[in-house]
What we know:
This protein is an alpha/beta fold. It contains 11 helices and 23 strands. The strands form 5 sheets. The protein has a 9-stranded mixed beta sheet, sandwiched between helices. α2 packs parallel to α6. It is globular and about 75 Å long. It starts with 11 loop residues before the first helix and ends with a helix.
Amino acid sequence: MYxxxxxxxxxxxxxxxxxxFAGDYRRFLNAGxxxxxxxxQAVAEAKKAGFADLQDIVKEGRALQPGDRVYTSxxxxxxxxxxxxxxxxxxxxxxxxAHIDSPRVDVKQNPLYExxxxxxxxxxxxxxxxxxxxVAQPLALHGVIVRRDGSxxxxxxxxxxxxxxxxxxxxxxxxAQDQMKKSAAEVIEGETLNLIVGxxxxxxxxxxxxxxxxxxxxxDEYDLEEQDLLSAELEIVPAGKARDLGFDRSMIxxxxxxxxxxxxxxxxxxxDYEGMPEYALCAILxxxxxxxxxxxxxxxxxxxxxxxxELMAAAGEEGSLALRRALxxxxxxxxxxxxxxxxxxxxxxxxxNAALLGYGVCFNKFTGRGGKGGSNDANAxxxxxxxxxxxxxxxxxxxxxxxxxxxxxxxxxxxxxAKYGMNVIDAGIPVLSMHAPYEVVAKCDIWEAYKCYLAxxxxxxxx
Length: 463
C-alpha cells in the first residue's frame, strides 16, 4: 500500500513548529528518566494549563461542570488528566494512554557491599533488556530514599557536568575467550550487574573501609544511614542528555523513548486542547507496563477505574452502572511505540507491514505473539473510524505489525483497557534499537503523533 515520507509535506511554518515541539520533548526526556520524574513534569504542565487537582476537589466536595479541567497523580508514579465535555460521562470518553516506565536496572534493597577494595551496589534489572548493552558505559542514579520517619531524599546523580557517574564493568577482551563463546543472553549475567560506586578507603578503618567511606559520604551529603536503603527506589539509567541525531538533525537519540515519546505528545494533546469538547477527554500516563502493568501503579490495577468513579461522582453521575457505561462507551488510543524497520536487521521484519521511520504515527491493529497471543485485536469498524479521523485531520499515518509472525512480539496496555468493552487500538511511534540504553526516533513521527492525538480527542465519536 502506498505510503510517503512525512518530511516531504511540510511547509516552513509547520517545520518550525515541529522542531519546537521536538525540542520540548527532548527537554521532557532529559528531565524525566524515571516514572516519578515524568509525573512531576506532567503535574507541572497540567497546573500551567489551568488544570485543578481532582483530589482537592473531592476533599472539598466541589461539583464539576462541563469544561472543567482536572488532573490527579497516583502514588507519584502514574498520572491522569481530564477535560469534561458537553455530553455526560456515561456516553464515554476519548482517551489517550501511554506508559512512562522504561527498561532499566534497579538497586536492590540490601545493595551496598565491598569486594576487592571496590564498593558496589547490587542490582536487579527491570523489564526486557540485553544486559550486555549496559556494561562499560556511564550511568546515572535516580530515585528516592525514604527515611524511617517518612522524610524523603531525592537523588539524581550523574547528569550534571561535574557529577560523578557510575558503571558496570565488563571483562577485558584479553581474558574473554570463554565469554565470547557464550550466547548474547549469557555474556553478561544478571548477578554480575554490580554497580561500581567507590574505591577510596576510609582512613583508620580496617574492615570494609571502602564501604564505610561510601556510607560516610551518604551520611555527610544526604543524612542517610545504611538502613535507609531498605526503603529506597533507586533506578540506574544512562547518564547524559538526549541528542539530535544525523547531519540533518532529523532524529533524536535518547534513553526512554519507549514509551515517553508517546507519553509526552499524549499529555500535550490534552493540555493544549482549546475550547469545550463534545465528549470528556482523558490522558493517562501509567507505570509498570514493562513488567506486565502489575502492581498498584500499573494499568492492571483499579486505579484508573477508581479515579473515573471519583470524577463521575463529582460531576453528579455517581453509581456503579453509570461507571460501567462510561468505561464501555469510551474510545481509546493506547499510545505505545512500535518496532521501526531496520535495514540492518531486515530479516525479522515483513516490510510492507512494518513501521518505517519518518512515515508518521503507526497503528498496530494487534500486537501479541505468534497467533496474536496476549493481544488486543481492534475491530475493523474501529480501524475505519480511525482512518476517517486521521484523513480528516491530514495526519500522516501507517499500519504495522511487530515483526514477522513467528519471530517474536510484545504487548501494551491496550488489552487491559479493552476489558471494559471500549474500543482500543495501539497508536504510537516507530523506534529503532527499542529497549537499548539509547533508542532512535524521527522528529516528524513525534509531530504526527501529536497531531494524531489532538485529532482523536477532538473528533472520536461512538459509532
